[in-house]
């Protein structure tokens, strides 16, 4: 369990941890992206998807372990492990920062991530993402069909229903895509509630800006929704669910914490 009262790290050590973390992630991703690009033409699609997803899972798990080893990042995310053998699910977390996908994928070995199309061309991420048959979000109809195919093959799909990182606490307006996929694939939607006490890598945060450390992350299982008959209703229920769950969050980013009253 994380301790939000942990003392702050010194500026020098926090700077080291920042650059160590970025370097470790960059090295792991670049190595696998190059290897996956070389393997891609020679491995059948379904086998490649399984191998690619497990490799990314292992790489992200290693990365999270390295971050935890520094003491600058504290993770309480073990609840996700309950979903590893749960069969086809749409995994739908809220999205406070860029590390959200890393934390979820690092615990689930057979998950296809719906991601920005531009990242599939990224030097560090593209090769591995294409090999794992991750799904681009630029063509909605293709995205829905690709997600349904991944679920029909027994995998899971990670889709952030806000569409982008949270800018309106507790949750942005929920997009209909997650409900449409759940309706078409006849697969449940499992919500995850991600909490953090830092603005690090939130919307607008510069990649190389050092935050106060340590940073705490907590992920807990939220409500599971059965496949809907009314997609718009499910989107509204998801938004209400996240609002209710985050209203009692233990960790809240500083930009969303209420300001203390000022004395006159």
Describe the structure.
By secondary structure, this protein is α/β, with parallel strands linked by helices. The chain has one domain. The protein has helices spanning 11-39, 45-70, 99-105, 126-131, 140-152, 177-185, 231-247, and strands at residues 73-76, 90-93, 111-115, 135-136, 156-158, 189-196, 215-225. The mean pLDDT is 95.
Name its key features:
264 residues, 7 helices, 7-stranded mixed beta sheet, 14% strand, alpha/beta
Q: In summary, what is this structure?
A:
With 264 residues, the chain is an alpha/beta fold. It is 41% helix and 14% strand. The chain contains seven helices and seven strands, in the order ααββαβαβαβαββα.
Strand-helix topology:
Elements: H1 11-39, H2 45-70, E1 73-76, E2 90-93, H3 99-105, E3 111-115, H4 126-131, E4 135-136, H5 140-152, E5 156-158, H6 177-185, E6 189-196, E7 215-225, H7 231-247
Parallel strand pairs: 1-7, 2-5, 2-6, 3-4, 3-5
Antiparallel strand pairs: 6-7
Query: Residue ranges: pLDDT <50 for 5 or more in a row?
Result: none
User: Portion of residues in helices?
Assistant: 40-55%
- Counting DSSP H or I runs of 4 or more residues, the number of helices is 7
Task: Describe the main β-sheet briefly.
Answer: 7 strands, mixed
Termini separation comes to: 40 Å
- Computed over alpha carbons, the radius of gyration is 18 Å
Sheet-strand content, in percent, reads: 5-15%
């Amino acid at each position: 369990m994380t301790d939000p009262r942990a003392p702050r790290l010194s500026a020098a050590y926090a700077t080291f941890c920042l650059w160590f973390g970025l370097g470790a992630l960059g090295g792991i991703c670049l190595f696998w992206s190059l290897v996956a690009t070389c393997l891609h033409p020679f491995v059948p699609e379904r086998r490649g998807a399984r191998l690619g997803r497990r490799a990314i899972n292992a790489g992200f798990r290693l990365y999270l372990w390295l971050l935890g080893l520094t003491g600058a990042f504290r993770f309480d995310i073990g609840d996700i492990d309950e979903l590893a053998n749960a069969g086809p699910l749409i995994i739908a977390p809220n999205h406070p920062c860029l590390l959200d996908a890393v934390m979820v994928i690092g615990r689930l070995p057979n998950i296809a991530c719906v991601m920005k199309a531009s990242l599939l061309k990224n030097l560090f991420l593209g090769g591995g993402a294409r090999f794992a048959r991750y799904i681009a979000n630029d063509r909605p109809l293709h995205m829905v069909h690709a997600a349904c195919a991944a679920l029909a093959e027994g995998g899971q799909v990670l889709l952030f229903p806000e569409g982008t990182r949270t800018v309106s606490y507790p949750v942005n307006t929920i997009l209909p895509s997650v409900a449409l996929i759940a309706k078409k694939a006849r697969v449940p939607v499992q919500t995850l509630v991600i909490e953090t006490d830092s603005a690090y890598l939130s919307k607008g945060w510069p990649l190389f800006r050092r935050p106060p450390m340590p940073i705490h992350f907590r992920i807990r299982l939220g409500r599971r929704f059965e496949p809907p008959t009314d997609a718009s209703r499910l989107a509204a229920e998801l938004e209400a669910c996240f609002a209710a769950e985050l209203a009692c969050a233990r960790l809240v980013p500083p930009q969303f914490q209420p300001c203390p009253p000022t004395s006159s």
